[in-house]
Amino acid sequence: MDFELPGEDHPKRQAVRSWFEANPHPSGADLARAGYVVPHWPRPWGLAADPELQLIIDEEMKRAGVTAPRNPVAINNCAQSLLTHGSEAQRQKFLPSALSGESVWCMLFSEPSGGSDLGALRTTARREGDHYVVKGHKIWTSLAHEAKVGVLVARTQPDLPKHQGLSQFLVDMDSPGVSVRPIIDMSGHENEYNEVFLDEVRVPADRLLGKEGEGWALSMIQLQTERVALSKPGAIWGSGPSARDLVEGLAETGALADAALRDEAAEIYVEGEILRLLAYRALSDRMNARTPGPEGAIRKMLAAPHGQRVLDLAKRAQGARGLIAGEQPFPTQLSGDGPFDDWDYAFWFSPAVTLGVGTQEILKNVVAERVLGMPRELDPTAREPWSETRRKGG
Amino acid sequence: MNFALSDDHQVLQQSARTFVEKEISLGRVLVPGATVADADYAGNWAKIAAMGWPGLVIEEAHGGSGLSCIDLAMVLGEMGRSLAPSPFLGTLFGTWAIQKGGSAAQQARVLPDVAAGKARLALAIAESNGTTDAPGREAVAVRSAGGWRLTGVKSFVIDAASADWLVVAAQDGGQRAFYLVDARQDAVRVDALPWRDVTREVCDVRFKDAVAEPLTADDATLWPWLRDRILFALAVESAAGTQRVLEMTTDYAKERTAFGRPIGAYQAIKHGLADMLGLSECANTAMLYAAWALSEDNARGPVAAAMAKAYCCDAYVSAAHRSIQIFGAIGFTWEMKNHLYYKRARANAELFGGARVHRARVIDMVTKKAA
Predict the structure, then answer these.
(1) Are residues A351 and A250 in the same domain?
(2) ipTM surpasses 0.90
């Protein structure tokens, strides 16, 4: 057992650092071609990198001041499915622009009626000749307003039980019949989330990802991908301020002199350090080709409320000033330039982190059932034909 | 970089678990009204000594195995997991004190006997209010013509009644120093406290002109090093206990039925168990990090040990309390083990400073580093 991270003289690090020295201002396409966008993928897209090399690449990119292409849905969640379930034509058409960040993707998953019960979704895709015709209404879609590609889950076989009749499609977001409307969330920001209306949208049949009926399995894999969290301890799904930033800020303002606040800050700090170590343990398990332990699901369950605590204490330390829109808690600002590197915005956004990608309650069910072997929740609609559930008003 | 346990460590842990499960029983302390006198301290020590565990961290030159804190965690964790009543922990603390602070002659006099299972030790440092801060004022060392003498009292001494030798922290002219004391002399009186954790012997020790011999290391050399290891050891027990409590409670939630379903089918129970699992995984991670940092003499050792003590002990208290709630009223009876875990958790949380004390130290250390 060794908790030492790859050092400055690590041979793998030297190679990566040389590349960034030779390419100080790489474009997204340059990074994609070098394999640095998805290093854990097989060649030619990635470098078949082990987690150690992934960590080094993350660190060296940060050191070089280079920002990775911002296309989280493709890079972190969905594009990997093209490797495993896509056709060669789909890979060639979609992957280069996805990995370079030129073509932003969004996930057309959640629906107004569904919430956590994704499998109950109602959007349909019916086959007509060499097209599918899609009709439905999606919600909570990040990036839909700028996305060129939407990864859609829709029901192709309504007479099968709800999880079996789903399929996935790669939809051009500029297709006729697609309309996007921003949701203004409680933070006041537009376009963090959107609604997407799909009105008789014609999708060519060769945009089906995998086979008909594989939509549920693909969606589950995409939602569980966790590479994004490897080296990011931030409060909002890995981005934004960390517990270390909190303690630095509180030290800067002198707020740590208050014994009660100091103890709370310490508790959050310790939790943050442990979550960081848990992430590294999961990474080591993968390096050792061990079946990943329960750390991944558990870490998600712990990291979301932890992030809320980080932001909550920073906000409380502001007192009444914390209610002034845009007011930052500490004199020194965070170095990142992402939307969540604004403490005030991150705080007002933070109620969402225990809702997005499944609520905290559902996640605890999953942890208790899959890891501890508790009996599964009852779903009376899981085995009957979906059309039957709908007929009964479900 | 590899944060996983090696195969050797896993084998060591598994063999310790097999031994403890087979050889150590809590049967006699599960009889209502039992005290530590019923815990078979001496019998368990004989079995543990036969395994060579008292010598785990003692150098080979003194007849021990010279193993690291990671190895120790594998074995001590199994004793914490089973609440195995024995003077192992007190002996370990005394061993560390003599290793770090004793002269070559003192080490040669005591450590081979410990490694052979023939001598047991205890560390007397806490004051009657529980603090371990220097210099302490309740025990005083005086130098006379015939050598050093100790007078006064030390409190919360783990395993003192079993000990053959004590390492005692006493004040001498405003400074704290450590002394090796023969526990069997008449000038030393040990009173076992009516300690709630009946799987552990915790005592007050009184000295009246007791013959003592100073260790060679001064307080500033010995105590920080010793403190980090003590905090770590309590974290090891607590992390392992947390995991055991989770397992017991998980099993029970699958077996016990109410309203036609196992109680584990209900979300209130599921979510409680999921929370306990989170505590257990985090405690184990914090403990392993401290084990690694101390094994390597890494500069992060003091922070890692303080974090592990604060987190693991709080987690243990929380998990053990939740376990009583999930078991329901049966978990509130003396005949069940739940209360033994809860009492051990509460005791570990308070001994050598509560979580707040160590969290404050963590903040001191990390903000000083940042400045």
Answers:
(1) yes
(2) yes
The reported pLDDT for the residue numbered A167 is 98
Based on the fold, state whether residues A88 and A132 are members of the same structural domain.
yes
**B221-370 CATH, one of 3.30.70.360, 3.40.50.2000, 1.20.120.530, 1.20.140.10:** 1.20.140.10
Distances (CA, A) of B8 to A318, B50, B202, B295: 51, 21, 34, 16
Judge whether A380 lies within some domain. no
Which candidate, A134, A285, A330, A305, places its Cα nearest to that of A215? A134
Cross-chain Cβ contact B270/A374 below 8 Å? yes
Smallest Cβ distance to B281: which of A5, A287, A298? Answer: A298
- Dump pLDDT digits (tens) for B134-173: 999 999 999 988 899 999 999 999 999 999 999 999 999 9
Amino acid at site B186: D
Q: A374, A376, A377, A379: which to substitute to probe chain B, counting the most B Cβ within 10 Å?
A: A374
pLDDT band per the 50, 70, 90 thresholds, residue B370? very low
Q: Which of A305, A217, A308 is nearest to B271 (CA)?
A: A305
Which of 3.40.50.720, 1.20.1440.230, 1.10.540.10, 3.30.470.10 is the CATH number of B7-89+108-115? 1.10.540.10
Class of the CATH-defined domain B121-218: mainly beta
Domain carrying residue A179: 82-222
Angstrom CA distances, A327 to A344, A347, A378, B62, B309, stand at 6, 11, 46, 63, 37
In this complex, which of A3, A290, A368 lies closest to B273 when CB atoms are compared?
A368
State the smallest CA–CA distance between residue B87 and chain A in angstroms: 29
Contacts of residue B267 in chain A, CB cutoff 8 Å?
361, 364-365, 377
